[in-house]
Write a structure and sequence with these properties.
The chain is mostly helical. The chain has one domain: MFS general substrate transporter like domains (Growth Hormone, Chain: A, Up-down Bundle), CATH 1.20.1250.20. It contains 18 helices and no strands. It has helices at about 10-45, 50-60, 60-65, 70-80, 80-100, 105-120, 125-140, 140-165, 170-185, 200-205, 215-225, 230-240, 245-265, 275-295, 300-305, 310-325, 335-360, 365-390. Helix 3 (about 60-65) crosses helix 6 (about 105-120). It is globular and about 50 Å long. The chain starts with 8 loop residues before the first helix and ends in a 15-residue tail after the last helix.
Length: about 400
């Protein structure tokens, strides 16, 4: 990657503008996640939704990831309209979360949340695809760009943690809607970045992604490892609330994990290990994390365990993005992101629905299932690594300037 001194001044300025605007947008969309993940299930419980319905409702985004999302990412890439797609999905997301605040019946909440998720879930893969195109064009690093999303998650979680002890839990949904509104506003500041249209041969070759053992190993391993967070995302706040922790304590536990994640993203340009090994380390860290969490540790131990999130999520994400940058040509990177997120959606939705049933009967023992998922993810990555080492591209095409890769 060229040093900054080797890049023309005009290109440096363009790169900085791109990075700043992308950082703001990452911050906005992950600010939504920062308010949603710790407290959406708390809101559901507050309006009278039982554990079984909570498991079904929170599985909705994961289901849309392997049904609607791949079509959205493929359409946006085919039409060279990543920026436009991000603007539209951000606006629909605001409307959806605001509408949820008027509902109380489980089925009505489920239906409206499914519609909202159809717009909301494509935003992260579309943004990651947009970011990877910028990484290739301007010679940037993914981790330092992505860390601003994690930093915004911290702010969102802390704000919600303060508010949960001040306002009624039934009103938390409007905090999430307000965070989504910031995403809609900042989406208009994104710079157009799509490459010129390619020949008609390229779209025909994109199906090679799903025929590639290496690409399948990447997305399946990442899906299993990230999917192993399902119990954590769904029931951690409820379990902590049941243990007597206050809103700020719950928010602080989430923040500890994300701070570790930010550190990993910030240091990622210095990592010397291969992306595949980073994914394996993330998987093994997840195994340890979930086995310890299953023991229902006290607050002090739980705080230490939360720091493993930097490895279980952050390092896995860095490794996965590194594999995509290394093996997937730029002109299909958004489509690859769609397939990755779809596969993660299958793993996450299946795990979330199982977690709803298991948690109702077994409580914290649900984390044993999460540990098993992470082990399988590590094995898949280890098996796929050999194929990846033997192939320079998962679609047998070189990366070049024209492809944006």
């Amino acid at each position: 990657m060229p040093s900054e001194s080797q890049i023309p001044i005009r290109s440096q300025l363009e790169a900085r503008r791109f990075a700043i605007r992308l950082a703001l947008f990452y911050g906005a969309i992950f600010g939504v996640v920062g308010t949603y993940l710790p407290f959406f299930t708390v809101w559901l419980k507050a309006i009278g939704i039982d554990a079984w319905w909570i498991g079904v409702i929170v599985a909705a985004p994961s289901v849309t990831r392997f049904t609607i999302l791949p079509f959205v990412t493929a359409l946006a890439e085919r039409r060279q309209a990543l920026r436009g797609a991000l603007i539209v999905t951000a606006i629909v997301t605001v409307a959806g979360f605001a509408a949820l605040g008027t509902l109380r019946q489980p089925f009505a909440v489920f239906v409206v949340f499914v519609v909202t998720a159809c717009a909301w879930t494509p935003m992260v893969p579309l943004t990651d695809g947009y970011a990877l195109k910028g990484v290739a064009r301007y010679g940037l690093n993914y981790g330092p760009l992505r860390l601003w999303g994690s930093a915004a998650f911290v702010v969102g979680a802390l704000v919600c943690g303060l508010l949960v002890d001040v306002i009624a839990a039934e009103k938390l949904i409007f905090v999430i809607a307000g965070a989504a509104a910031l995403g809609a506003i900042t989406s208009f500041g994104l710079r157009p970045l799509d490459a010129p249209a390619r020949s008609s041969v390229a779209p025909q070759r994109t199906t090679a992604l799903l025929r590639s053992p290496g690409f399948l190993a990447i997305i399946v391993a990442a899906a299993l490892i990230q999917g192993s967070h399902a119990a954590y995302y769904t029931f951690a706040s409820i379990a902590w609330q049941g243990a007597g922790f206050g809103g700020m304590t719950i928010a602080a536990l989430w923040v500890l994990g994300v701070i570790a994640e930010i550190v990993v993203f910030a240091l990622s340009p210095r990592f010397a290990l291969s992306p595949a090994l980073l994914v394996v380390i993330g998987a093994l860290s997840a195994v340890a994390r979930w086995l310890i969490t299953a023991q229902d540790p006290p607050l002090a131990a739980l705080a230490v365990v939360q720091l493993l999130h930097g490895l279980t999520y952050g390092l896995t994400q860095v490794g996965t993005m590194g594999l995509l940058i290394r093996y997937v040509p730029g002109h299909v990177v958004a489509r690859a992101q769609g397939y990755l997120t779809a596969c993660t959606g299958i793993a996450m939705s299946g795990a979330a629905m199982l977690c709803g049933a298991i948690y109702a009967q077994q409580g914290q023992r649900v984390y044993y299932l999460m540990a098993a998922m992470a082990i399988v993810g590590a094995l898949v990555m280890l098996l796929g690594r050999r194929w990846l080492d033997a192939h320079p591209s998962v679609v047998d095409q070189p990366h070049n300037a024209g492809s944006g890769g």
